[in-house]
Amino acid sequence: MTAIILVAGVARRLAPLTDATHKALLPVGGRPILARMLDALAWAGVRRAALVVGHCADQVRALAGERVGRMAIDYVVNPEYTRGSVLSLYAARQYLREPALVMDADVLFPREFLRRLLAAPAPSALLLDRGFADTGEEVKLYTRGDRVIALGKKVVPEAWDIVGEGVGFFKCGAEAGPAFVRFLERVLEENQGMNEYEDALHMLVTSHHVGWVDVTGLRWTEIDFAEDLRRAEADVLPHVVRLDGA
After folding, report:
1. Number of H helices, E strands in the chain
2. What's the number of domains the chain is made of?
3. Does the predicted TM-score (pTM) go above 0.90?
4. How many whole angstroms separate alpha carbon 179 and alpha carbon 183?
5. What is the extent of the structural domain holding 43?
6. Three-state SS across 42-70?
7. Nearest Cα to 141, choosing from 159, 123, 128, 131?
8. Among 195, 224, 193, which Cα is nearest to 79's?
9. What's the CATH code of the domain at 29?
10. pLDDT digits (tens, 9 = 90+) for 73-84
11. What are the angstrom distances between the C-alpha of 17 and each of 20, 37, 61, 226?
C-alpha cells in the first residue's frame, strides 16, 4: 500500500509562518508535523509514501529524503500548487491503481488512527470523529449503517445515522481507485482545478461503499491557523506521546 501525502499547498491562513516554509514542516514539540506523520506510516508497515510537492518543495525533499525506515519515498510535483487540492491528488493518480491511503499533511494524530484504519474490514474507509464542534471549517461525514453517504463542508443529506468530522485520511481500495480518478477528472472539468479533492470523494461515497472508522475520544488536530499550532503543542501532543509511547 502507498500513502499519498498532499504536501503542496501554500497555507495562506498561516502566513507569515508559511511564507518561506511549508506548514507541514512547522515544528510541534520540536519535530516537524510531516516527520511525525512519516514515522507513523513506517511504524504501521506502509512500504511507500508518495509526497505531492509544490510550495517549498526543496525543504520537503530535504526533510523526507528517499526513505524513512523501510518505507520508500517518492515525489510527485504539482506545478499548479496554488490552486485546489484536486490537482495535487490528480497528479498522483497512478498510485490509486492499487490500494492507497490519501492523507492531508497537516494533521497531528496518534498512531492508533493508522492502526484502526488499516485494520478496518472495509477496503475503502474514512476516519470519523463524533466529538467535534461545528464551526463551518470541518469536512463533515454523514453515515448510514456501515457506510459514509455524504461528505463535505456544505453537503447535508436528507437523513443520516451519525455525523462527525473527517480526519483527512482516506483508505482507498483497489476497486474504488479507478472510479475515484474519474470523479477527480469530473471535478477538474467542472471547476478548472480550483476545488478540493473532497468534492470528488463525495461523489465516490454516493456511488461506492466507503466504510467509516470511529476515532472519537482520541486527540488530534488539523493545523490551519496559528491557534491550531498552539493547541497542537499544548493539548494534543501530550496525548499523542502518551498513546504512542514516544
Report:
1. 8, 14
2. 1
3. yes
4. 6
5. 2-244
6. HHCCCCEEEEEEECEHHHHHHHHCCEECC
7. 128
8. 193
9. 3.90.550.10
10. 999 999 998 888
11. 7, 20, 19, 9
